[in-house]
């Protein structure tokens, strides 16, 4: 039973390491990417680590005799074997889609962050009034009405600005 618990803990550490390296832009995530880069395998973070983690995840319950002798245990065994094969294939120098590599995720997060900051800064720059500058209406608004109300008044309105 301790082997099952130890295997499950190892699996959680592998999957946690993979998530940290693939999907975070933090110091520990950068450290995990550097460790994986030094291993020399091209698809280490893309296929090897998640496939190994999932293979262990499928194999851990097979240590419990009740599960191992059931149909569920057979399905877990085949799934674990499939993930072992994927892990072995990951050692081949094949190119994967760009989104499967951590560098793509890091650049994507940085680009999104830059776009979000640029959007916030442009909003702040256009809405900021300098001291002594006369107030101006907001962009897209006329007399506190939305632009669609200003161009298409409702039939109930008299057309006066009230």
Your description of this structure?
The structure is a single chain. The chain is mainly alpha-helical and 162 residues long. It has a domain at 2-110. Helix content is 64%, strand content 2%. Strands 1-2 form a two-stranded antiparallel sheet. A hairpin with a 2-residue loop joins β1 (141-142) and β2 (145-146). The chain is elongated, with a radius of gyration of 28 Å.
List keywords for this structure.
membrane, 2 strands, two-stranded antiparallel ribbon, 2% strand, 7 helices, transmembrane helix, 162 residues, mainly alpha
Question: How are the SSEs ordered, and which strands pair?
Answer:
Blueprint: H1 2-23, H2 27-38, H3 44-59, H4 65-68, H5 71-89, H6 102-127, E1 141-142, E2 145-146, H7 147-151
Antiparallel strand pairs: 1-2
Biggest β-sheet description: 2 strands, antiparallel
Listing every helix as H and every strand as E from the N terminus to the C terminus, the arrangement reads HHHHHHEEH
* SS summary, helix count: 7
Cα-based radius of gyration, to the nearest Å: 28 Å
Query: Distance between termini?
Result: 77 Å
Contiguous uncertain segments of 5+ residues:
146-150
Mean pLDDT: 79
For the biggest β-sheet, the strand order reads 1-2
Tell me roughly what share of residues is in helical segments: 55-70%
How much beta, percentage-wise?
under 5%
Structural class: mainly alpha
Q: Give the overall shape.
A: elongated
